[in-house]
## 1
Amino acid sequence: MNNKTPLNGPCFESTGNPKKLVFLLHGYGDNAVNFFPLATHLYDPELNINFYAPNAPSFIPQYPIGRQWFDLYPNGINFTEAGPTEKEILKQDCLSSLNLIKDYINNLCIKHKLTLKDCFIIGFSQGAMMAFEFGKYVNNALAGCVLLSGRILPSEDHEKRYFIETPVLIVHGDQDTVLEPKYFEEACEILKNHDFLFDSYLMKNEGHTISPDTLKLTKNFIKKHMT
């Protein structure tokens, strides 16, 4: 992973003076161009918001159009079964991506004279994992953090004093076979135990996808936390 290469991707800047910024983090094997149409479903002309979707920094071997925020198979081992060596590789991979995300977001905040409190982070699958890790990484209150069909990565430290002030939305399909619903329950338990303010929805008869109902919940969440 080349940390010297800034993140880039499509954007929809409906105004030169936005009130909030929305950042869309795609999932494993996807890319920003493919994921960015989500913005058209979340856009509301009554809300003063700009949308941005950075590409994850690493390509997936043998899959040139797919990108990843971190390698799901460090040393060829699934990250859910990682030993100490693989966990360290995973940690450094995440930190590298988080630093790039931070620079990407900070530059846009400076451009629009906004702060992290004016930013919504919305992630799907692996992007959801990164969205939550980003909040922990900067340890700052955000406008909102949305985890769609994701999970919270194992950690010994979820108690971040400023990040817990961030409203969180978790949406997951009860038929998800990529990231099973047990990860939804696990994430809710972590947030509850650390006093996060969060809304959670386990969607009936839905898999590893973003449905119209999920988009509606996400759009309403943004409206609710525009202040």
## 2
Amino acid sequence: MTAGPSALAAAVRNEALDLRTLAERLAREAGALQREKYETRIEIRTKSASIDLVTEVDHACEALIVAGLHEARPDDAILAEEGRGEDRDDARWRWIIDPIDGTTNYAHGYPRFCVSIGVEYEGERAVGVVYDPLLDEMFIAVRGEGASLNGRRLHVTQESKLANALVATGFAYDVRRSAQDNINHFIAFVKHARAIRRDGSAALDLCYVAAGRFDAYWELKLRPWDVAAGLLMVDEAGGRTSDLSGGPPQRSGFECVATNGPLHDQVLAILHT
């Protein structure tokens, strides 16, 4: 098992802890809005494909979070899924926001979705907050400080046999038209792992690896807001994260492997068969 990221410098750490508090507050406020509108009549539209959905609640939650950041942190960069905020290279701190990770689930009344807020300091993941509003589960990580769920310290599993592992993945929105559809990998893991789950929220999947609920997770064609908080969560819970070649995860989040550590090389081997 690999060690988590090194601790932030003292002055930066204190600021990161303040940002954690702010991110938690904004995530709870957005989550409250999601609970209020859950399983009600809402406006649903499509984006890049017929299975790529966005709702009025996505937009309302993103507007709430971005407005809070503009008020509290006007000099910070903001990258948000639905296009609010201003992402720029000259800011020390960068917020990466997915107002609802699992929008398709939310639109169908399937209770697997969350708010995901990641914060980078000079290009390095520093803070991660993921909030499941239906279960009232708040996952928090600060670089070098560990990861927690509702105040309880998180640790990955120690499982070393893929045959005993519960594994998670997902499929990209272009799955109907792209040859790189992840289905070959899915079939391979059906044959090698104990079981596979596909629940439609990358942020929650990563948090579940950190919490020991999943032993491993992989996915292709992700975006920064899908993984900004969750990758730090896994690292800080003692797990291992990489791209499909075993190198550091890309900042873009295009491809991602996250495991408890002992299973990582086995997972990579399956992905390269």
## 3
Amino acid sequence: MTRHRFDLQDLPATPWKNGGGLTREVLWQPAGASLDDFDWRVSVAQIDSDGPFSAFPGIDRVITLIDGVGVQLRSEGGQVQHRLSTPLSPFAFSGDLAIQGHLLDGACQVFNVLTRRSVCRAQVQVVRSAFDWPAHSQGLFMALQGQWQIGGDEAQPLMPNQGLWWQGVALSWQLRPQGADPVLLGLNLTHLAF
């Protein structure tokens, strides 16, 4: 089993090729995979200017606004016309589509999950109170507000912008917030049976 903690501030920020923002890669699986053969990928991106989103054929995306006013998403064919302006409201769309992003009022920050459609499915959930997370063999938590105790007998504290991910063994988790206005993002990943 793999269980790994991370702090967003410790992850390198990589500039986009088009200069429109920065990405902090949280996780790629499997380890060593490239953009052409990853199963799932999690990142936090800062969008600094209007411009195209990278296309990912065969990939499903879930994007969640975590800071800023937001961005208008439009696809060339009109399949996607979405105003991503409600914080902490995950929005799913196909990575096959050519998407243009138009900032609504200054830079914003988003939590991104990409999954290969033929391999697995992702579900992003916003947790604001004590919750018993059902067992899954892989997933991820990231605290956004307040301190969280994650686990059971060996609970691990998570402060804002800290998280953990696991894979290999189906684990259930006790999520216990401490402090005012707690918010945590949870990610379930389900591999498809063949």
